[in-house]
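hiii, so i know i said id send this last week but things got crazy w the move. better late than never?? heres the sequnce for the chain we talked about at the cafe, plus the structure i predicted for it. fair warning i was half asleep when i ran it
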Amino acid sequence: MTGTDDPATDAGELDAAFAETVRRTGASIGALYLLDPGGQLLCLEVLCGAPAEFAAPWARVPTAGPAPVADAVREGRMVWVGSHEEMARSYPRTAMVLPYPLALVAAPVTGVRTWGVLLLMWPATRPPYMTGRERGHIASSCRRLARLLEEAAEHGGFPASDARPRVVTAGAGHRTASPAMAAADFAERLPGGSCALDLEGHITYVSSGACELLGRDAAGLLGTLPWQSLRWLDDPVCEDHYRAAVISREPVSFTVCRPPGRWLEIHLYPDASGISARIVPSGGRPPPSPAPRRPTGTAARARTGQLYQLTHLAAALTEVVGVQDVIDLVADQIMPAFGAQGLVLSTADAGRLRITGYRGYPPSAIERLDGLSVDTGLTPAGRALGTGVPAFVPDPEEMRRVYPEAPLVGGKRAWAFLPLITSGRPVGICVLSYDGPHTFSAEERAVMTSLAGLIAQAFDRARLYDTKHELAHGLQQALLPHSLPAVNGLRVAARYLPATRGMDIGGDFYDLIRLGDGAAAAVIGDVQGHNVAAAALMGQVRSGVHAHATLGTSPDQVLRGTNRLLTDLGTDLFTSCLYAHLDFVRRRATLASAGHPPPLLRLPDGDARPVAVPPGPLLGIDPDAVYPVAEIPLTPGLMLVFYTDGLVETPGADLDDSIARLAGRLGRSDDEDLDLLIDGLLREAGTTGQRLDDIAILVLHHETGPRPPG
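okay and structure toks below
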């Protein structure tokens, strides 16, 4: 591609290399995904061996989603799925919408950076494993594709976009029709009927025998899709047989009734160039078929591809958590599925439509649309929400008849207004819009309406989750100290990280309390649980400790007084706590523990070790519990690190070993910046990703003694 600035030439080079990879690997279907500029989506760029409609549910795949291509790019590794059974175990959502016998591999396309993913699929007849040579060849092909993408990027080519993916052929194994008349004569001499379909499903050849059995002449069949030109084949089961033949590359046979009562057997024989079909009357002597007949069943009369797409999107909607997740899913998957260029998602709030998310509109249009009354006459949104009946407007002329200003707001030319209703209660409205006129077929309207119900349920759940999350987060922030007091001669840093599962709230807490010019107190604790009850009890424990500490009582008495408070409250939750009294005049630190992990001590020479503090019982168990104390010298340069068990507890690991490893990391850490020191401890402990428990850390570094009183 060097030496040309023509993007079309660059695309041709890439397509040729991609097609060559598909051919040399023997794959029946190939797909090349490219990362979008934000790195959050994989966009289908090139497809081989299947029509673009087949890939519609997977044209845009979130990199965080549970799919082979997402895992490949996210983890930077080759993902192999050897059978449909393995697919069902590892990727149940993908298996649900791709229910065919197959094997596949997803490999990251990586050069100077990660560009995307190469996806290759084979029929299930291939061995359910990959050889080292195959892996090496695929990895080499990915590097070649990455080089082509890098060269193209220098010329401004190949941005990931919403455009329809390019469909290419593998360029091998295609048989010519020459001499055409000889082939036609051969087919005419065969008993029954013969016809050919391309990979898109269009009829490219039909014999006279097939015309007689199907009840249509050749002119009415050539170039059509069978389930469109023959209404008695307009059943998703029939289309599914065709999809199964294209994707699995295995022969498929089924029986169908031509009204009023003539039964026909249809046998499909696929390869990389298309499908050969044999049609014989049921009860005759059909040609041998090595594939078992696929079971039939009842289904609504809608396009099979749309049903799979609806199933795929429904499964995705069950996994969203917050409102922003719903908005992203609708924008990234549902908009492309229906070819829409614009989206407005609004919430019904106090008689007004509040826009919570949008795509494809200028901010000025959103400012005008946001906050409209539900009975607005500007757009059909309010009426659709009030009646619960979707509104489909195919062109601006129809919109202007009732809502003359609507086409002027966002510049769109076709709209689908989908009310979001759950349990008979309106929760909002989803508007899909188009840059040009768009005819909404009956099938498309039915699928959109069904999908609106699923969006409504997901949207309602997400709003409830966000409300609970905001409440919990606000409670957590109110209970933890907003800032730590300045103590002369003491550098301090602290951090709180919630568990990544649940409501981002927990019972871990810390505090630093000034006790005059010559003393201070430090406390850290952990209330059992990761919910609102734990956070509320944490606030009571922190208040109890603070009240007893300011009275000047010793550490053991502080814990005894707080313990009595909790036992009087009769709570079912238990609390661990570590309290330290720092006396800068006597240069002593006195510590007491209620079942809490020991603090770490680091000396000026870098030696770090746990402090031996004899633990007493957890708070809230025994009202008469006694808490032993321990003393250590408080010398300049000394550092104390208090932490909760979320930093050191790992399933299957010994707690003492984990604490020792944490002390080793502390000894090697640079103490110039305490916040960076905490970052390093968290990173090396592996707590920057998924966390089963919340974490609190409090670091105290004693630099110099206090100023003399007065």
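btw The chain is about 35% helix and 25% strand. thought thatd interest u
miss u guys!!
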